[in-house]
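subagent[fold] <- orchestrator: predict structure for attached chain, return tokens only, no commentary.
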Amino acid sequence: MDAKKTALVLLNMGGPDSIEAVEPFLYNLFADRDLIQLPLGAVLQKPFARVISHFRAKIVRENYQRIGGKSPLLHWTALQAEKSAARLGDNWHPYVAMRYWKPRADETLLRMREDGIEQAVVLSMYPHYTGATTGSSVKDFKQAQAQVFPELKSTYIESWHDWPPYLDALAQCVTEGLEQVPEAIGKPLVLFSTHALPQKFIDRGDPYQRHVEQTVAGVMQRIGDLEFEIGYQSRSGPVKWMEPDTLDVIARAGKEKKPLLVVPVAFVSDHIETLEEVDVEFRAHAKEHGVPWFERVPALNARDSFIDAVAQLVRERAKF
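subagent[fold] -> orchestrator:
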């Protein structure tokens, strides 16, 4: 494998790179039927997506304004790709393909073809598999490859929730968070928060919840005997969602006067759901409900232990 010019392609959802990009980004997101199945069927998905994205854009723009006016997800994903490829060797070349914003899969594949890439390892940056995220991103990349670069030989890594070096890196983040807890506070409740899915995804056999629970179990084995819970965030719309809601867990912790250390377990990079939803909205919710102490663990981002974990994963799982 090392003798050929090989691409390491990291797949992620993407995020708006400016305030002006928020509405078209939301349209791309709501138009994806693998992620959100809007009512009245596939034919009306895109018209509904256009209406919903228009009306949601105002509040979402305000959220992005609070974190600097754009998403940092491309920055972190590109850095993860660059550093991981450097660990893998001189014949490895880093690329990023985003599902809902630039660079899209077809743009990335065109660059790869022009760069003379001979084969590619395509890695989903969602450790926990669901058809709504990894499934949609992989399908999108395969469709683009068939049109833009059909001769490319690709191999895919679609879930790695129980990869030991990843669990080690995540446990390191939690340990760093625990070191910030004042002695007078005592042991906090460790709240692992992850993006919710509609319950129907789980009922149809999607392994996402099981994968999250296995990741949490692996981290807890590494950090010791602490009370913990799992919550599901970012719920919206009139459907039945996975439970419990992270907001409900926070409110209960306030009622019981428990300090909280939040671990955004399904997110490998800082983005809107850590920097705004957790750091701003959840913190305010915790204060409102009387939580005596509230902090979030550092994100994985481009820390060395996580980059090592990604490089080792690629070495272990890549099959041509």
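orchestrator: received. Logging for downstream: Residues 45-66 form the longest helix (22 residues). The chain has a mean pLDDT of 95.
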